[in-house]
Amino acid sequence: MKQNKVLLIGWDAADWEIIWPLIAKGEMPALKNLISRGVYGNMSTMNPPYSPMLWSSVATGKTPDKHGVLGFIELMPNKKGIRPVTANSRKAKAVWNILHHKGFKSNLVGWWPSFPAEPINGVVVTDKFQKVSKDPEKKSPMLKGTVHPEAILNDLEDLRMFPQEITEAHILPCIPKASEIDQENDKGLSSFARILAENTSVHAAATNLLRTTEWDFMAVYYDLIDHFCHSFMKFHPPKLSAVPQHLFEIYKDAVISAYKIQDMMLERTMQLVDDDTTVIVMSDHGFESGYKRIMKMPKYPAAPALEHRQFGIFVAAGTNIKQNEKVFGLSLIDIAPTVLHMFNLPIGNDMDGKVALDIFKKSNKPTYIDSWEKIEGDFGELEKIDEPNTLDDEETLKQLVELGYIEKPDENIEIAILKTKCDLKHNLARVLLGKKDFESAKDILLELIQEKYPTYQEQDFEGENAKILKKQEYKIGDAVIDVIPYYMDLLTIALNQEQFRKAEEYLHQLRTLDKRFEINTYFSEAKILVHKGKIHKALKLLQIAKDRKPNAEVWYQIGKIHAQLQQFQEAKESFEKALEFEIDRAKFHQAMAAVLIRLGEYEEAAEHALTAIELVKYYPEAHYVLGEALEKLGDLENAKIAYETASKLKPVEHERAEKAIENIDEKLTQPVKLIDKADYKYRRNQVVIVSG
């Protein structure tokens, strides 16, 4: 496989639901051109969808419990203060560290987090570069560690744009009615100016390095779309009833303007790379642009992440990349292994991601080593020293507060440290929950609740982990710790582990703590009622939830209960309603496929099962139900492949899948009629499980 340059471009929060209509109107020509000569598809995110954690997973191929970046802020190494997250939190080697070790030259611009700059072979312009004071009277000098090597700092410093340099020429194409804004009470233009200035600075540095340096790998990160969406998505069409008409008229074009600006930046970038360069454009998650948009953000840690959607975008083009094809099943953690493979380097067995072999015209078989962390030598990594003064970053902290990602740090530093420790531990528990390591996640959550705060009142229930709070919050001195999120996650774990008595205890406690999560507890209570055999009562409860606030999840849960009652037509109708709300939820399609099989609609069932697999490649239940549909259609060979895939992905399904495979082997000894349509579709989309 020929080795060429690789350019990785990150567009935080870019979403196909906004992009495709703009492409259809001819308003994102650069991305359209890239798609036409390459591959495209969904990029699956992870939980919690916090950008510093996700972009560190992109860089390392590892989940946050392994790479160590667990939030927007971190403790200083001396444990005596907090600061915005830095590259010091990352405990795993990034792809640029590995390339440095192997003699390749890398450029890095704006990556989050990348400050302080790592001394790699190449140029690092960190995420500190574009952060300048909003006060025009302040000079905002660049701190030590902002750029590597320091010798080029003066060359890059003048490339920064300041918010006060944004003029009507920048504003009016995006917000034509900007003159109508009440700037005393509406800070929309201030947010616009800051976001555009910062991303213009990133783009100026990136294009400068593209023109003036030699490199093998380059990565550039933009937060333009994400920050515009957090500021203006509530005004995006269609108009939400709670949005005043005059504000809708002012800001309704702001979100799409961010996409257009980003596309113009891509167009200029593509002019500066040669045809042999492999270009990847991707996002870490999408952004809710429909009925799930939030008008009033709840008081919840990093609540703005609730606006993030499960799927981001992936586009790649280059000499060895397939042309104009859709690819499936990609995840953030696949990027680093795929880039290493492009440079003919081995993948660490401790990486969670896999090489995206489907994107290549031709590819060698991936090679593996035990772990890059165990290899000695120069990887261009930071020396772990504490520099609290140079790393203090009040301006970035303020921006994180403005965006809602963190609360304003408590003036009492001990309280601020305590809350930060709790947030980081909770984020780790949520990562482990997402990986289905329920026991480890539960241990952390119970530690957060029980061991750290001995002054609370408690009441004993029967069973394990018996301490349950009577109060909503723990109070330590002047520090208040909201424990509701911990109990919500414990409830989720108990339900996943089918520990329904424990789930009922957690549910009871949540109901006594706070009513604001009431809509969420409908689903949990319904699952508990189903377990108790009170299925009709559970269905009635969900009907109440649906009447209060119809949404995809409530229709899905109603459909599951209808299916359990063998009311398959009603289940089908409920799943159809769920899919009307959210067409790209894999579990909705899998559930629909299972019901359609019971209704004898086998071809449509296979279609929905395939769609679920396209959305989430490694989804054992979807592969199993696909096997059922194909078996009913008579496509026994592909049904066997589907069952085998389900068994490999989820050993707990092994016995059921093995019985299905034995049944097929018996049928294969008899003459059968294959259904060509289903056979073609599954062969086109099948997943091959590669060991190692």
Short overview:
The chain has 692 residues and is α/β, with parallel strands linked by helices. The chain is built from 28 helices and 20 strands. A hairpin with a 2-residue loop joins strand 19 (473-476) and strand 20 (479-482).
What does this structure look like?
The chain starts with 5 loop residues before the first strand and ends in a 7-residue tail after the last helix. 47% of the residues lie in helices and 11% in strands. The longest helix has 25 residues, at 188-212. The protein has 28 helices and 20 strands. Strands 1, 2, 5, 6, 7, 8, 9, 12, 13 and 14 form a ten-stranded mixed β-sheet that branches. It has a two-stranded antiparallel ribbon with strand order 3-4. A hairpin with a 2-residue loop joins β19 and β20.
The helix fraction, in percent, is: 40-55%
**How many helices in DSSP terms?**
28
Main β-sheet description: 10 strands, mixed
Coarse shape = globular
Rg is 26 Å
SSE map:
Blueprint (H helix, E strand, L loop, with lengths): L5 E6 L4 H9 L4 H8 L1 E7 L6 H10 L3 H4 L5 E3 L6 E3 L10 H7 L4 E4 L12 E4 L21 E2 L4 H5 L10 H4 L16 H25 L4 E6 L1 H9 L12 H7 L2 H18 L6 E5 L3 E2 L20 E2 L1 E7 L7 E2 L3 E2 L3 H8 L4 E2 L19 E2 L18 H4 L2 H10 L9 H22 L3 H14 L6 E3 L6 E3 L3 E4 L2 E4 L1 H13 L3 H14 L4 H14 L3 H14 L3 H13 L3 H14 L4 H13 L3 H14 L4 H14 L2 H14 L4 H15 L7 H10 L7
Parallel strand pairs: 1-8, 1-9, 2-13, 2-14, 5-6, 5-8, 15-16
Antiparallel strand pairs: 2-12, 3-4, 6-7, 9-12, 10-11, 17-18, 19-20
Helix pairs in contact: 8-9, 9-11, 15-16, 16-17, 17-18, 18-19, 19-20, 20-21, 21-22, 22-23, 23-24, 23-25, 24-25, 24-28, 25-26, 26-27
